[in-house]
Amino acid sequence: MIAQLTDFFERRSKRTVSTIAIALSMVLGGLDLAASAELPFTMLYLLPIFLGGWFVSRGMAVYLAIFGSLLWLLADLLTGVAYAAPWIVYGSLLLSSTLALVFALTLAGLRARFDELSRIANRDHLTGLSNSHEFYRLADEEMERAYGLEPMT
User: Fold this and answer.
1) Which of 49, 56, 47, 65 has its CA nearest to residue 15?
2) 123 by DSSP, 3-state: which?
3) How is residue 127 annotated by DSSP?
4) Which one of 7, 36, 53, 126 has the fewest CB atoms closer than 10 angstroms to its CB?
5) What values do phi and psi take at 130, rounded to 5?
6) 145 CB contacts (<8 Å, ≥6 apart)?
7) What is the C-alpha separation between 63 and 81, in angstroms, rounded?
8) In a structure prediction context, what are the per-residue pLDDT tens digits for the chain, which is 153 residues long?
């Protein structure tokens, strides 16, 4: 199932994935507002950040981290959750936005490293040409594209 989801998002344009991530953030904000303080939604805001950071770009992940933190603050303020002191909500915003930004930046760095290692693993280090693993992967893609699910015999 994870492979199918990854394939789904890999085949979409960055604009489409960005739109899906922003829409998911807004849905989570609405659910957060509807559930008020009974259900903690803070960790769920990491899902759109993951989509933006892994499939789009580092900048999109940072944007989604800030957007999600502001949606969380708005939902918290609109539900009228009573805190012992008024500064607690802003301290909580600082903590949740810091967590979201660290997650976004770490994920974007991890994706960059993953892409670099994938490129290195599929190339001969002396010639820069595709190695046998990459050749067979590309041949398999072309065979699948040419013949689909029909047998070759």
Assistant:
1) 56
2) strand
3) T
4) 126
5) -65, 140
6) none
7) 26
8) 888 888 899 889 999 999 999 999 999 999 988 886 667 777 889 999 999 999 999 999 999 999 999 998 888 888 877 778 888 888 888 998 999 999 999 999 999 999 999 888 888 888 878 888 888 888 888 887 777 666 656
